[in-house]
Design a protein that fits this description.
A two-stranded antiparallel ribbon has the order 1-2. It is globular. β1 (about 40) and β2 form a beta hairpin. It contains seven helices and two strands; from the N terminus they run αββαααααα. The chain has helices at about 5-15, 60-70, 80-95, 95-110, 120-130, 135-150, 155-170, and strands at about 40, 45. It has a single domain (about 5-170), classed as Chitosanase, subunit A, domain 1 (Up-down Bundle). Helices cover about 55% and strands about 0% of the residues.
Length: about 180
């Protein structure tokens, strides 16, 4: 199994199947409760992000293709150590690519522009070589937790999000370079 396939299995496991909870802004094509059409979320693919898709009938293979092109590839996960790749990939899916990239850059101590490029990748290589990457991963997750806990929907979804954030570091240890 490739790192992407492994990461996809973990993230889609957290995201789950079809959900059309009315209180979730992501389930609405307009990105806010009551805005647009309530089409739901399936496999983490939301009506807010993909208003043109028939979410309820989305196939797992289609979700996997979207995850690869719109999240994994955009955060250059293949260039990251697999455990870190999972953390950044999950954040990209759940919180947005730009936000995930900015958190990674902040954890690596480089300018935060929300775009992972050569400077970010070089800094990450140096940080991981010096410290093994544990502090970098912890800082990344701390920034993510702080952001999510401040969301107005934390009161409704926070316990589930907290469980996910607590499980991810352990799940990341199962990630390997093996294809």
């Amino acid at each position: 199994m490739t790192p992407f396939e492994h990461g996809f299995a973990i993230v889609v496991g957290h995201e789950g199947g079809f959900d059309a909870t009315r209180d979730d802004p992501g389930n609405w094509t307009g990105g806010a409760v009551g805005k647009g059409e309530l089409r739901g979320t399936k496999f983490g693919i939301s009506a807010a992000a993909y208003p043109q898709l028939d979410i309820a009938n989305l196939a797992l293979a289609d979700a996997q293709a979207i995850y690869r092109s719109d999240y994994w590839d955009r955060v250059h996960a293949d260039a990251l150590p697999p455990p870190l790749a999972l953390l950044v990939f999950d954040a990209a899916v759940n919180n947005g690519v730009t936000r995930a990239a900015s958190w990674l850059q902040g954890a690596a101590g480089v300018a935060e522009d929300g775009q992972i490029g050569p400077a970010t990748l070089s800094a990450l290589t140096e940080v991981v070589a010096k410290s093994g990457g544990a502090a970098l991963c912890a800082e990344f997750m701390a920034q993510r937790l702080t952001f999510m806990a401040a969301l107005p929907t934390w009161r409704v979804f926070g316990l589930g999000w907290a469980r996910r954030l607590c499980a991810l570091p352990y799940e990341s240890l199962t990630m390997t370079d093996a294809a």
